[in-house]
C-alpha cells in the first residue's frame, strides 16, 4: 500500500472539484485498511473513506489521509430454491454488481441499475431509485470500527435505514469502514414497474418479455436520457432530497399551486424537490462554471473549474428561495466535506 502526499482529488470525485488531500492511498484488502489506520495513528491524522466520489462535494482541502476503497470480491453465502444471499466486498462497483446479478438471474436490484459508486457506500444513504431501495434486499453488512479495529455485523435494524438515510450518516458518521454488504436476492422475481415511466419505456420494446433484464434496460435508457453523465459534466446526481411536508401544509400549497406534484407518504406528503426548484426559476441557471442542469433541476453542475464552495453557496441560495416561496426547507442529499 503506497501513501501519496499532497495529491489533487479532482480525478476522484464526479463533481470534478479540484482540492488537495494531505495524504491518499488505495486499499485492496482488509490488512491495507489496518495499515492505513496505523499510519494515521502514527501521524496523528484523521482518516476518511472514499468510494467512487459520486456523493461528495469537496468545499476545502482534505486534512488527513483519504483512502480509496477497492476491496473486491463476490461470494454466494447461502441459497435455496427461492433466494440467494450474496456477499459483495465494499470496493465492488455497484452497477457492475447489478449487471452480475442480472447475468445470474438474481432479482431485486435491477431498478437500481446505473447508480454510480461502490457497494460499500450504498448503505450509507440507503440508495434508491424507481420504487426500490437498498433496504428492500439488504441482509447484513460487516464493518470495521476505525478506532478499535473491531469488526461488527449490522442487521437491517442496526442500520436504521430511512429515505436517503442510515445510522452511518447520523450517529456513526465517520466511525466505521464498511467491508462487505450481503444482499438477499430472488430467484423467483417480483417486478416493480409502476414507478416513474418504466412501463412507458417497456412498452417501447413490445416484443421483449418482462424480466429483470428488460427492467434494467428500461431504467438505464431512462437514466441516460434524463441525467447528466458525470464523465461529460461534473455533478453528484440529486443534490437535494425530496422534502416531506405535513398534510395541512400541503393543503395550503395546493390552494395556491393546484398543479403541485405530490406523493402521499404515511402521514406526510412528499413533494419533488425538482419541481420546487423549477418554480423558483433555477433550472438552467448558470454563473461562470457552475449552475443548475438545464434538463434536471435537482443536479447542480460544474462545467469546468467551479470550486466546491461556489456550488455549496449556490445550493444555499436555492434553499433560501424555496424556503421563501414555499416555506419548505430543502435538505442536501450530497455529503459536504
Ligand atoms: C449521475 C448520478 C446519479 C445518481 N443517482 C442516484 C440514485 O438514483 N439514487 C441514489 O440513492 N443515489 C444516486 N446518486 C448518488 C451516489 O451514486 C450514491 O450515493 C452512491 O452510493 C455513492 O457511492 P460512492 O462510492 O461514490 O460514495 P462516495 O461519494 O465515495 O462516498 C459517499 C459517502 O459514503 C462514505 N463511504 C463510502 N464508502 C464507504 C465505506 N466503505 N465505508 C464507510 N463509509 C463509506 C464516504 O465517506 C462518504 O461520506 C447518483 C450520483 C450521480 C453522480
Can you walk me through this structure?
With 337 residues, the chain is of the alpha+beta class. Helices cover 25% and strands 26% of the residues. The protein folds into three domains: 4-69, Uridine Diphospho-n-acetylenolpyruvylglucosamine Reductase, domain 2; 74-226, Uridine Diphospho-n-acetylenolpyruvylglucosamine Reductase, domain 3, CATH 3.30.465; 234-336, Alpha-Beta Complex (Uridine Diphospho-n-acetylenolpyruvylglucosamine Reductase, domain 1). The protein contains eight helices and 20 strands. The relative contact order is 0.13. The structure holds flavin-adenine dinucleotide. Residues 14, 49-56, 69, 90, 115-118, 120-122, 124-125, 127-129, 176-178, 227, 230, 235-237, 335 line the site of flavin-adenine dinucleotide.
List the helices and strands and how they pair.
Layout: E1 4-8, E2 20-27, H1 30-43, E3 47-50, E4 56-57, E5 62-69, E6 74-79, E7 83-89, H2 94-103, E8 128-129, E9 132-133, E10 138-145, E11 151-155, H3 156-159, E12 176-186, H4 198-203, H5 212-226, E13 234-235, E14 244-246, H6 247-256, E15 263-265, E16 268-270, H7 273-279, E17 286-287, E18 290-292, E19 300-302, H8 308-326, E20 335-336
The structure holds flavin-adenine dinucleotide.
The site of flavin-adenine dinucleotide has 32 residues, from strand 3, strand 8 and strand 12.
Number of structural domains: 3
Q: Ligands in the structure? A: flavin-adenine dinucleotide
Strand order of the largest sheet: 6-7-12-10-11
Quote the average pLDDT: 96
CATH topology of the largest domain: Uridine Diphospho-n-acetylenolpyruvylglucosamine Reductase, domain 3
Termini separation? 25 Å
State the low-pLDDT regions, or none.
none
What is the CA-based Rg, rounded? 21 Å
Question: Could you estimate the helical fraction of the residues in percent?
Answer: 25-40%
Number of strands: 20
Largest sheet: 5 strands, antiparallel
Q: Tell me the number of helical segments per DSSP (H or I, 4 or more residues long).
A: 8
- What is the CATH architecture annotation of the largest domain? 2-Layer Sandwich
- Strand fraction: 25-35%
Based on Cα principal axes, name the global outline: globular
Secondary-structure class: alpha+beta
**CATH class category of the largest domain:** Alpha Beta
Amino acid at each position: 500500500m503506497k501513501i501519496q502526499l499532497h495529491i489533487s482529488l479532482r480525478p476522484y470525485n464526479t463533481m470534478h472539484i479540484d482540492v488537495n488531500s494531505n495524504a491518499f492511498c488505495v486499499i485492496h484488502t482488509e490488512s491495507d485498511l489496518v495499515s492505513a489506520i496505523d499510519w494515521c495513528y502514527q501521524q496523528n491524522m484523521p482518516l476518511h473513506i472514499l468510494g467512487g466520489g459520486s456523493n461528495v462535494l469537496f468545499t476545502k482541502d482534505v486534512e488527513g489521509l483519504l483512502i480509496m476503497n477497492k476491496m473486491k470480491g463476490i461470494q454466494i453465502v447461502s441459497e435455496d430454491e427461492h433466494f440467494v444471499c450474496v456477499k459483495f466486498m465494499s470496493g465492488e462497483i455497484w452497477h457492475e454488481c447489478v449487471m452480475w446479478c442480472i447475468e445470474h438471474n438474481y432479482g431485486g436490484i435491477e431498478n437500481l441499475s446505473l447508480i454510480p459508486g461502490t457497494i460499500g457506500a450504498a448503505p450509507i444513504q440507503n440508495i434508491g431509485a424507481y420504487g426500490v431501495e437498498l433496504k428492500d434486499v439488504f441482509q447484513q453488512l460487516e464493518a470495521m470500527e476505525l478506532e478499535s479495529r473491531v469488526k461488527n455485523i449490522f442487521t437491517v435494524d442496526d442500520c436504521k435505514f430511512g429515505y436517503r438515510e442510515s445510522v452511518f450518516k447520523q450517529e456513526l458518521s465517520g466511525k466505521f469502514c464498511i467491508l462487505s454488504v450481503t444482499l438477499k436476492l430472488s430467484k423467483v422475481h417480483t417486478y416493480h414497474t409502476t414507478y416513474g415511466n418504466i412501463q412507458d419505456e417497456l412498452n417501447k420494446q413490445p416484443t421483449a418479455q418482462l424480466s429483470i433484464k428488460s427492467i434494467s434496460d428500461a431504467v438505464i435508457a431512462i437514466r441516460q436520457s434524463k441525467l447528466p453523465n458525470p464523465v461529460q459534466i461534473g455533478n453528484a446526481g440529486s443534490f437535494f432530497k425530496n422534502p416531506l411536508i405535513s398534510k395541512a401544509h400541503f393543503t395550503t400549497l395546493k390552494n395556491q399551486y393546484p398543479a403541485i406534484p405530490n406523493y402521499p407518504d404515511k402521514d406526510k406528503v412528499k413533494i419533488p424537490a425538482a419541481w420546487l426548484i423549477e418554480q423558483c426559476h433555477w433550472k438552467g441557471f448558470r454563473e461562470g462554471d457552475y449552475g443548475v442542469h438545464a434538463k434536471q433541476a435537482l443536479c447542480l453542475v460544474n462545467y469546468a473549474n467551479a470550486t466546491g464552495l461556489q456550488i455549496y453557496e449556490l445550493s444555499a441560495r436555492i434553499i433560501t428561495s424555496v424556503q421563501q416561496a414555499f416555506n419548505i426547507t430543502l435538505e442536501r442529499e450530497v455529503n459536504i466535506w
